[in-house]
Design goal:
5 helices
C-alpha cells in the first residue's frame, strides 16, 4: 500500500510510514474523534434530499446485487479545515467504523466515495482486498465520471455516476481475469 500522506510504499501492518512518519496516532491527534459514519450513505446535512438519497440507495442496492462481495459507502462530509484530504480520508476509512474487525486487511472490499459539499471535491479509496484488482487509474476514471455533477452541486447524480462507472470497471475486470490468470 501507499502512505496516504507521502504516497511512498509502506506495509499495511506498519505502525508508521518509514518515509514521512505518518501514523494513525498522528491522525487521531490531528483529526480528533471520527465523525459518525452510517453505511451506505452518510449525509448529516441532507445535501442529497429525500429523492436524491432514495436514488443513491437504489443505485447502491443495484451495485451490491451485481457485486455482493463488495461494499460501497458514500460520505457527504466537510473535512476539518486543517486536514489534508488524503490522510484524513485514509484515517476516516480506517477509524470511522466502516468495517468490522473481520473485514480488515485483504478481506476489506469496500469502496468509499467522499464528496466534500463545501468544496465539491471528490475522492475515493478502496480497501486492501480491492487494491490489487482495482488500480488507482480506475478509481480516477470513476471520479472523473462523477466530477461534473459534483461541481454543479448534484451530489446524488455524482454518486450514481461514480457507482455506474465502478460497476463497468468491475464487470470488465470480471471478464478479464480468466485471460489474465
Amino acid at each position: 500500500m501507499l502512505c496516504p500522506a507521502c504516497q511512498q510504499p509502506v506495509h499495511e501492518t506498519a505502525a508508521t510510514c518509514g518515509a514521512c512518519g505518518f501514523s494513525f496516532q498522528d491522525g487521531d491527534t490531528a483529526f480528533g474523534a471520527p465523525p459518525l459514519v452510517e453505511r451506505p450513505v452518510t449525509d448529516p446535512d441532507d445535501h442529497l434530499g429525500r429523492a436524491g438519497r432514495s436514488n443513491v440507495l437504489q443505485e447502491v442496492a443495484d451495485f451490491h446485487q451485481r457485486f455482493p462481495q463488495c461494499d460501497v459507502t458514500l460520505l457527504l462530509l466537510s473535512k476539518p479545515p486543517q486536514a489534508a484530504a488524503r490522510p484524513w480520508l485514509f484515517w476516516l476509512f480506517n477509524r470511522g467504523g466502516l468495517h468490522s474487525v473481520m473485514e480488515k486487511g485483504g478481506a476489506c472490499r469496500r469502496v468509499l466515495l467522499w464528496i466534500d459539499p463545501d468544496t465539491r471535491r471528490l475522492a475515493a479509496i478502496c480497501g486492501y482486498g480491492l487494491e490489487p484488482l482495482l488500480p488507482a487509474q480506475h478509481l480516477r476514471d470513476c471520479l472523473q465520471a462523477a466530477s461534473d455533477h459534483a461541481s454543479n452541486g448534484q451530489f446524488a447524480r455524482a454518486a450514481q455516476a461514480f457507482l455506474r462507472e465502478l460497476s463497468l470497471r468491475l464487470t470488465r475486470l470480471h471478464f478479464d481475469l480468466p485471460r489474465t490468470y
